[in-house]
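Postdoc handover notes: sequence design on the structure in folder B. Input tokens:
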């Protein structure tokens, strides 16, 4: 693993923390941000902007806030954004919050959102050659950790969270038999990869902030089909939701099947007691990195 902006040992210790804890969305009883207006403050990286360049061995890069003169690897675009104080990431978070319909962004408002990219690096890889008779499937990607903090006018922290995002950057499929060998590999440009990663971080950050201002809830329907009080882009087609009954005793997983500008509709996905899920039920988004989003779909049933 190639870890940028932090020691590999510290990343391994972080990875040992359950991902559900790192990505947990606010519960119904969590303290909310008592304002629907925030401002986007300073964003920074854990290390210097050129650290990622040196670690990647790209010594020929020349990066400023205006010019890139080098091969367009993803490290190049990260360094450019870092030099520019993550202006692209900040604008993406601002746009996602504005689109939510629940939070507005105004410079100088009482609640300030700040962030720090604590780690960014690669995982996986292209893999080796397939066995003499068999096949090989391998993939690699990027990960990033983003610390988000919201402070009030007095500088007190009212909310904070750590967001982890992973995207696949390339995949390899190789098949071999006694007489022939077939291999295919997919990949994208450095700019496209970094843009996808920072958009994923921005949407996850916007969800965390917005759900602290106005918690995600069921506003219509119930049982196997529910309507939620947020729409695109924070809730998109395929987003996995976990809804919990008002008394907290029953929960079920849902998948968003349609999303408009202010509401989304989700249908039950797998097992779970939906009989008590209805208007007023709280909900959380299960991010793709959360093991809960990839858990079993059916409840255990004891046979007679």
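Designed sequence:
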């Amino acid at each position: 693993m190639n870890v940028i902006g932090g020691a590999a040992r510290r990343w391994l210790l972080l990875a040992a923390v359950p991902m559900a804890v790192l990505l947990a969305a606010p519960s119904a009883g969590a303290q909310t941000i008592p304002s629907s207006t925030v401002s986007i403050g300073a964003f920074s990286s854990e290390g210097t902007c050129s650290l990622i360049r040196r670690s990647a061995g790209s010594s020929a890069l020349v990066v400023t806030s205006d010019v890139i003169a080098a091969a367009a690897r993803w490290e190049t675009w990260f360094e450019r954004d870092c030099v520019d104080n993550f202006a692209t990431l900040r604008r993406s978070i601002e746009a996602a919050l504005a689109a939510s319909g629940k939070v507005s962004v105004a410079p100088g408002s009482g609640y300030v959102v700040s962030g720090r990219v604590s780690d960014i690096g690669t995982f996986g890889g292209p893999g080796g050659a397939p066995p003499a008779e068999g096949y090989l499937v391998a993939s690699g990607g990027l990960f990033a950790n983003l610390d988000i903090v919201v402070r009030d006018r007095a500088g007190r922290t009212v909310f904070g969270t750590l967001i982890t995002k992973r995207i696949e950057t390339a995949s390899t499929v190789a098949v071999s038999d006694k007489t022939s060998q077939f291999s295919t590999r997919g990949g994208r440009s450095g700019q496209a990869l970094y843009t996808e990663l920072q958009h994923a971080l921005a949407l996850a950050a916007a969800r965390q902030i917005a759900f602290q201002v106005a918690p995600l809830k069921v506003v219509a329907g119930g049982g196997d089909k529910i309507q939620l009080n947020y729409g695109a882009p924070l809730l998109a087609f395929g987003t996995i939701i976990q809804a919990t009954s008002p008394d907290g005793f029953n929960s079920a997983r849902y998948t968003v099947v349609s999303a408009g500008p202010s509401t989304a509709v989700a249908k039950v996905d797998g097992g779970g007691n939906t009989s008590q899920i209805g208007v007023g039920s709280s909900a959380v988004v299960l991010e793709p990195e959360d093991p809960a989003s990839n858990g079993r779909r059916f409840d255990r049933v004891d046979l007679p």
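Context for whoever picks this up: The two ends are 49 Å apart (CA to CA). Don't rerun without checking with the PI first.
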